[in-house]
Amino acid sequence: MNKTVNLEMQQSALSDQDLAEALTYPVTAFLSREYAEAEKEKLWPKIWQMAGRVEEIPETGDFITYEIGDDSIIVVRTGPDTLKAYHNVCPHRGRRLVSTPEGANHACGKKSRFVCGFHGWTFGLDGKNTYVHDKQDWKGCLNEENTALAPVLVDIWGGWIFINMDLDAVPLAEYLEPAASILNPFQFDKMRYKWRQWVIFDCNWKTALEAFMEPYHVAGTHTQLLTHGDYYAYSAPYGLHGVSGFDQRDPDLMMKQASTITRAGKGADPRISTYNLQNEIYTTVNNASTTETLVNAAKRLVDELPEGTPADEVIKHWLASAKADDAARGVEWPTITPEQMSQAGLAWHIFPNMAVLQGITFALCYRSRPYGDNPDKCIFESYAIERFPAGQEPKTEWVYAEATAEKWGMVLAQDFGNMAEVQKGMKSRGFRGTLPNPHQEQKVTNFHRQLGKYMGTGAPVKLKP
Ligand code: FES
Ligand SMILES: [Fe+2]
Asked: Which atom of ligand 1 is nearest to the CA of 133?
């Protein structure tokens, strides 16, 4: 076997600048059972991870579970402004307190207390034990501490609930920086679920997530989109996290694009190409990555503007009329400066398993998680959030949806078509190790750089010219 690329991760640290160089890293992180086992010790219990959205538990007693590896966490609302999180295990003999129904990706419901199904120990929403059957048998050795549910850190950002099993972890706000500050203008907390779907893939959780970390694949995977726009993208690390976006080197272009998703598209008449791009995205990305308001306002551009209107004026008019349309139905747009829009780019990776593709009033998001102990399988979840008029938010729940174009739209189905094939391909003895694009795939290499720190496996290695 002729391996021309050194597959050993090197222990020396890589700088942000190094990520712009040609790098490689081995496939161990995707394929190895030992690596997946090690993630259970070194990664998942140490990091903040998104467990759900605040809107899922609006009232006191509402709870959800979040399952990761062998751990299950209960997040419960204990009051109008307070959430608490616990390990989902009874301190008596270890029964799971709340069971995830067969075929579901989590448990949810409403409780005034948690009663263990085995011997009836009972816990208040605050996690304290309120009942032990025949407590006197322990001769005074049971106390508040050893009978309470084991606590987990919980905090909120952008309407997302994050948990951390490491009670000594840095605060969430610090963990998310600088991503949180850059994204805060979008006010994700004002958005609500539009739809949420999940599926099980025959690939590692990283293989699935990385399929959404770079627009470099558009030219090879979503060829139909090429008639509507250009997708050459920069990518950049931001600490643990990373971003990609359309070309940042031309500030004039960035202004014209207003946001990297809300842009003119490709074609001689920007009135038409703007609509074509928006309509194409809306219909093939499962009614996400733009909004009905934006599509409808784009459709009117040919009637509202004379032929020959320059692209930047078309965009300006389009966004102003979409903003007015939304205002008329009670949807307020956040104030985002062109500089903030430009810095926020197109799509974020929030370490380790969350992705957000944001727009002014919407976002398309992904989360992937290991499936059992199998490094070749993962739970993949995707959801759209959007601003809705108060009281008109759709009622949604997690829906298991087979990975078809019918259920997910053509674009996501095309992405899904790569999952198992990448996982299989990486096992080939003819595969020399990854060759990520030094300009467009820095999000991916940064992910492996940061992952290596948690896992103690070192950083990607520089290729020799
Ligand atoms: S295991 Fe929960 S009461 Fe016994
Ligand atoms: Fe894609």
From this structure: 3
pTM, two decimal places: 0.94
Indicate the number of domains in the chain.
2
- Dihedral sign of CA atoms 228, 215, 397, 183 in order: negative
Q: Are residues 54 and 170 in the same domain?
A: yes
Residue 37 CA, ligand 2 centroid: distance in Å:
29
Q: What residues does the ion ligand 2 have nearby, CB within 5 Å?
A: 415
189 CB-contact burial (10 Å; exposed 0-12 / middle 13-18 / buried 19+): middle
Domain boundary among 120, 145, 174: 174
**Measuring from atom 4 of ligand 1, which residue has the nearest CA?**
119
Q: Examine the domain organization and report whether 58 and 79 are in the same domain.
A: yes
pLDDT, tens only, 326-375: 999 999 999 998 888 888 999 999 999 999 999 999 999 999 999 999 99
Q: Which of 88, 118, 147 to mutate to test the pocket of ligand 1 (most atoms within 8 A of CB)?
A: 118
Q: Are residues 21 and 104 in the same domain?
A: no
pLDDT, one tens digit per residue, over 15-55 is 999 999 999 999 999 999 999 999 999 999 999 999 999 99
Omega cis (within 30) before 178:
yes
Question: Distance between CA atoms of 47 and 172, rounded to whole angstroms?
Answer: 9
| pLDDT tens column, 41-93 | 999 999 999 999 999 999 999 999 999 999 999 999 999 999 999 999 999 99
- Tell me which residues have their CB closer than 6 angstroms to ligand 1: 90, 92-93, 95, 116, 118-121
What are the structure tokens assigned to 241, written together? 């996290």
Range of the domain at 195: 17-46+184-220+344-462
- For the domain that residue 190 is a member of, what is the CATH number? 3.90.380.10
Q: Of the candidates 234, 251, 198, 227, which has an alpha carbon nearest to the alpha carbon of residue 20?
A: 234
Give the DSSP letter of residue 10: B
Atom of ligand 1 at shortest range from CA of 120: 3
Q: Is residue 192 part of a domain?
A: yes
Ligand 1 center from residue 116 Cα (angstroms): 5
